[in-house]
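From the methods appendix. Each design record in this collection lists the tokenized structure first, followed by the designed amino acid sequence. Records were kept in a plain field format so they could be parsed without special tools. The example shown here is representative of the layout used throughout.

RECORD:
FOLD TOKENS (255 positions):
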């Protein structure tokens, strides 16, 4: 058989390799650390949150943001996950799903493994969003998840550490506890939820900001800088912040 014909014949078995994200669709890549709880235990991370672990998430996301590939516009980090939004017109690798997923997971895994000095694996999924409103909905959803996770983790580890309660018993006690009861557990142990660092309660973000400088000839230039925002606002204020930022970014501006 002719080599080119043989290649075409075998390519038929690469199922799904040519699936592409439709045009005029926003892409968010969500990267999750595989077996995150096992990894944090292995690294002896502080409970319920360890800023060093979060710093690695931020640095891993930053490497993708500044890599010059994919046209990333915003990244959000919480717990053991990173969500990265790309410019609506991003067309790298022909928007092939398999290519984007595999490369992003590989980049994140390599970056985090170097930083943590242990093997780290990320999986990656693409979230395809038809409108800017849905993009804002997505990040609001992840922030709400961060808030729930923070309250649950602090309540759980307060019972474990302060009351010397076993993991099974602490889990059982919190199983039917509502939000108010979990706040009460913290308050009775002199922990004010709103005083917990913002990055734990609401996650943190990476975004582009413009700053003026001069080139070698002394002419003024505008340069973009990837900035870490660890004091995000919440709820409607966060939605407004995201909407305004993404519109400005896609118009060729930044904050």
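DESIGN:
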């Amino acid at each position: 058989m002719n080599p080119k014909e043989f290649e075409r014949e075998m390519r038929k078995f690469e199922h799904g390799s040519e699936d592409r994200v439709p045009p005029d669709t926003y892409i968010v890549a969500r990267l999750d650390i595989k077996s995150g709880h096992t990894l944090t235990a292995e690294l002896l991370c502080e409970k319920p949150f360890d800023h060093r672990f979060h710093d690695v998430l931020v640095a891993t996301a930053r490497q993708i943001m500044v890599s010059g590939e994919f046209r990333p516009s915003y990244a959000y980090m919480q717990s053991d996950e990173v969500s990265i939004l790309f410019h609506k017109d991003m067309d790298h690798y022909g928007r092939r799903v398999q290519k984007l997923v595999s490369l992003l997971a590989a980049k994140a895994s390599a970056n985090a493994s170097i930083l943590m000095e242990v093997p780290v694996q990320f999986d990656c999924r693409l979230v395809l969003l038809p409108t800017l409103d849905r993009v804002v909905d997505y990040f609001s959803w992840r922030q709400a998840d961060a808030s729930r996770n923070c309250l649950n983790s602090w309540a759980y580890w307060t019972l474990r550490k302060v009351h010397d309660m076993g993991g099974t018993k602490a889990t059982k006690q919190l199983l039917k506890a509502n939000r108010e009861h979990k706040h009460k557990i913290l308050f009775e142990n002199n922990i004010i939820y709103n005083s917990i660092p913002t990055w734990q309660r609401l996650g943190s973000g990476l975004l582009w900001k413009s700053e003026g400088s001069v080139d070698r000839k002394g002419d003024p230039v505008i340069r973009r800088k990837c900035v870490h925002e660890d004091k995000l606002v919440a709820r409607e204020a966060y939605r407004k912040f995201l909407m305004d930022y993404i519109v400005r970014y896609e118009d060729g501006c930044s904050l």
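APPENDIX NOTE: The first helix runs from residue 3 to 11.
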